[in-house]
Amino acid sequence: MNRILFDSSEIADGIATCSDARAAHILSVLHGEVGQILKTGELDGRIGTGEIVSIEGRSVGIRVSHTEESLRPWCDLVLAPPRPRVMKRLLPQLASLGVGTIVLVGAKKVEKDFWGATLLKEENFRPLFVDGLMQAGTSVMPRLEVRRNFRRFVGDELDGLFPTANRIVGHPGGAQGPSARREGRLLLAVGPEGGWTDDEVELLESHGFSRHSLGSRILRTDTALIALLSRHLPAA
């Protein structure tokens, strides 16, 4: 954890309190003691620092001062989801890298039982996002949405939800290397483990997506996605 984040409900009169894994990290890894200054922040709010003011058993009280703006998300993602165990390790990384909105879509090669996964419940995916944000030292929560009908989503909703010309679909046969920068925030579309079908790629291209390839190697979804995002990270 490079920044300890708190929900607004955990802060009262300027004091944030925790007794969970964050407290264990403060006490065991950071060797926290009263008077120590930590990097802190409020989820979906500002970031800053906090001073440990109390330690009672495994509970830590921190006087926080959050006056700085967090880094904002810089891209969005349309994702045909892989298996739940892959998604579970992917979501914290997406939060760390600065993805804002993630729309999970029902492409043809998505395993049908994915849509019943408990991972789609907010109480299960939200902690994964928080872990990623604390690693990155940022505070803006990604948004996760589900659209099981791929064609309906692309045809009826995509342009209104993501009004940007900067659109890339990861697919073999496209350009390799960094893509030419287009105007607007990046919208990346990445297929399932089996890849997009030809008609799915054609539909995305008809809505302004350009193909981008990582070469001839067949990669897992999480590997391909991290590689694509790293190629398009904005300059510091």
Q: Can you offer a commentary on this structure?
A:
- The protein has 236 residues and is of the alpha/beta class.
- It has 2 domains: 4-68, Ribosomal Protein L25, Chain P (Beta Barrel), CATH 2.40.240.20; 75-231, 3-Layer(aba) Sandwich (Alpha/beta knot).
- It is built from 7 helices and 12 strands.
- The protein has helices spanning 21-29, 84-97, 122-136, 150-156, 158-161, 198-206, 221-231; strands at residues 4-6, 11-12, 15-18, 37-42, 47-56, 59-68, 75-79, 99-105, 143-147, 167-175, 186-190, 210-212.
- The strands form 2 sheets. A 6-stranded mixed sheet has the order 1-4-5-6-3-2. It has a 6-stranded parallel sheet with strand order 9-8-7-11-10-12.
- Helix 2 (84-97) crosses helix 3 (122-136) and helix 2 runs parallel beside helix 7.
- The relative contact order is 0.15.
- The mean pLDDT is 92.
